[in-house]
Design a protein that fits this description.
This protein is α/β, with parallel strands linked by helices and about 425 residues long. The chain has 15 helices and 15 strands. The two termini are about 25 Å apart. The chain binds D-serine (DSN).
Length: about 425
C-alpha cells in the first residue's frame, strides 16, 4: 500500500504482532475473520446515512439501504428476533438508547452489582446510568457465587424499579430469565437482558434464550459473536406493544418505533455503515454450522481451563463455568489481580484484573482476574492446548511471586502460539 501514514501503520503492525505472538484471554475479545475486517475497513466509512433504510436524511443511500437491510434480516434470523436495530455504535450506546426509550431521568432501575460481575451501564454511580436514574442492585450469594434470585426478588418488591436489567461482564453461569420475568411482571417492570458476553452461545442454543422472556435485549457484536466492535438491540415475538408501553408523553406507540427513535435521533447521529456491513458479514458467519462447532469448543475450553485451575488449587467464583468465561479469586494464592495481570502480561498472556464478589480491594487493585476462551478458540486451541495454557498461567504467577525472569516462559508462549495463525478462515 502506498502513502501509508508511517507513524500510525508502524504502530498497527506492532499491535498486529502483539496479537499474533500472545495468548489472548480477555473474555470480551476475539479475532474477526478477514471478511469482517475487510467490510469494517471499507469505503462505506465515507457515507452519511442518518435515518433508517428507505427513510434517510441524505441522498445516495440506495446501496447503504441494501446493506443495512441485509444486516437486519440476518440478525433477525440468527436470534429468531422480530425486531432488531443494528445501528448502536456500542453496547453502552445500545443500553443508553433503551433507557432513553423506556425511562425518564429519576426513574428506578435494578441491575447486577458491578463489583459482583455486572456492567458499568447497569447503574454504576460512575456511569450515566447511575447518575440519571435511581439505582439498586442485586448480587451473588456468598456461599455459592451464583445470583441470589430470592434476594433479587425482595429488592425488586421493595424498590419497585421501572426496569430490571439482567446480564453481566464477569459472570460465568447461565441466567434464569424466566424467574426475572416473573419478578418483572409482579411489579410491572420492563425486563432488559444485556447479552453482550454470551450472545454467540445463545444464538447457537448453547445457553438459555432470553428472547422468550425479556422484553428487550441488547448486545455487543464483537465478543462471542466475533463481529466488529458495535452494538444491537432486539425484541422477541411479543414485540409490538404487548406490555402496554407508552412513550414518554403517554401516547401508545409501537415499542419498535420508540426504540428506533431512541437510537436515531435520540442518542446517535449517522450510523457507522462500514461497521453495519461488517456486522452483516459476522451474522452470516454465525449462522453457519462451523460457528456452532466453534461455540461448543469455546465452552469446552473454558470448562477445561476451570477444571485444570481448580486442580491446581485456584478458587473459581461459583466453582466453574457454563459459558466462555471464568473469574478467578486469587486471594488464596496471595497475589492481587493487578499483579497477576502484570505477571501474565510478562509472559505475553493477556487478561484483565477484575473485582471478585465481596472483594476487599479497590477496582484498581482487585483480588481477581477474568479469563475467557473465545479468542484462543478462534485460533484453534483445543483441550490439550488448554493444558499447556494452564501451565503457563500457573508458571507466570510462580515466577512473579519468586521474582524470577520471564524470558524463557514468554519464548515458550510465543512458540506455542506460532502454531495457531490468525486469519485462517
Ligand atoms: N468492558 C467490556 C468487557 O470487557 O466486558 C464490557 O464493556
Amino acid at each position: 500500500m502506498k502513502n501509508l501514514d508511517k507513524d500510525v501503520f508502524k504502530l498497527i503492525q506492532k499491535e498486529e504482532k502483539r496479537q499474533i505472538v500472545g495468548v489472548e484471554l480477555i473474555a470480551s475479545e476475539n479475532y474477526v475473520s478477514d471478511s469482517v475486517l475487510s467490510a469494517a475497513g471499507s469505503i462505506l466509512t465515507n457515507k452519511y446515512a442518518e435515518g433508517y433504510p428507505n427513510k434517510r436524511y441524505y441522498g445516495g443511500c440506495e446501496i447503504i439501504d441494501e446493506i443495512e437491510t441485509l444486516a437486519i434480516q440476518r440478525l433477525q434470523l440468527l436470534f429468531n428476533a422480530e425486531y432488531v436495530n443494528v445501528q448502536p455504535h456500542s453496547g453502552s450506546q445500545a443500553n443508553a438508547s433503551v433507557y432513553l426509550a423506556c425511562l425518564n431521568p429519576g426513574d428506578k432501575i435494578l441491575g447486577f452489582d458491578l463489583s459482583h460481575g455486572g456492567h458499568l451501564t447497569h447503574g454504576s454511580p460512575v456511569n450515566f446510568s447511575g447518575q440519571l436514574y435511581q439505582t439498586s442492585f442485586y448480587g451473588v450469594s456468598k456461599d455459592t457465587g451464583t445470583i441470589d434470585y430470592n434476594a433479587m426478588r425482595l429488592t425488586a418488591l421493595k424498590e419497585k424499579p421501572k426496569m430490571i436489567i439482567c446480564g453481566a461482564s464477569a459472570y460465568s453461569r447461565d441466567w434464569d430469565y424466566e424467574f426475572f420475568r416473573n419478578v418483572a411482571d409482579e411489579i410491572g417492570a420492563t425486563l432488559l437482558a444485556d447479552i453482550s458476553h454470551p450472545a454467540g452461545l445463545i444464538a447457537k442454543g448453547l445457553l438459555k434464550d432470553p428472547l422468550h422472556f425479556c422484553h428487550i435485549i441488547t448486545s455487543t457484536t464483537h465478543k462471542t459473536l466475533r463481529g466488529p466492535r458495535g452494538g444491537v438491540i432486539m425484541m422477541g415475538k411479543d414485540y409490538e406493544n404487548p406490555f402496554g408501553y407508552k412513550n414518554k408523553k403517554g401516547d401508545k406507540k409501537m415499542m419498535s418505533t420508540i426504540l428506533n427513535s431512541a437510537v436515531f435521533p435520540g442518542s446517535q447521529g449517522g450510523p457507522l455503515e462500514h461497521i453495519i456491513a461488517a456486522k452483516a458479514v459476522a451474522f452470516r458467519e454465525a449462522m453457519q454450522d462451523h460457528f456452532f462447532e466453534y461455540m461448543m469448543q469455546v465452552k469446552k475450553n473454558a470448562n477445561h481451563l476451570a477444571n485444570n485451575l481448580l486442580d491446581l488449587g485456584y478458587d473459581i467464583v461459583s466453582g466453574g463455568t457454563d459459558n466462555h468465561s471464568l473469574l478467578i479469586d486469587l486471594r488464596s494464592k496471595e497475589i492481587t489481580g493487578k499483579d497477576a495481570e502484570f505477571a501474565l502480561g510478562q509472559a505475553h498472556i493477556t487478561v484483565n484484573k477484575n473485582m471478585v464478589p465481596f472483594d476487599d480491594k479497590s477496582p484498581f487493585i482487585t483480588s481477581g482476574i477474568r479469563i475467557g476462551t473465545p479468542a484462543i478458540t478462534t485460533r484453534g486451541l483445543i483441550e490439550e492446548d488448554i493444558d499447556l495454557i494452564t501451565k503457563y498461567i500457573d508458571e507466570s504467577i510462580f515466577l512473579f511471586r519468586n521474582k524470577k525472569s520471564f524470558n524463557s516462559l514468554s519464548k515458550k508462549v510465543n512458540e506455542t502460539m506460532k502454531k495457531f495463525p490468525i486469519f485462517k478462515y
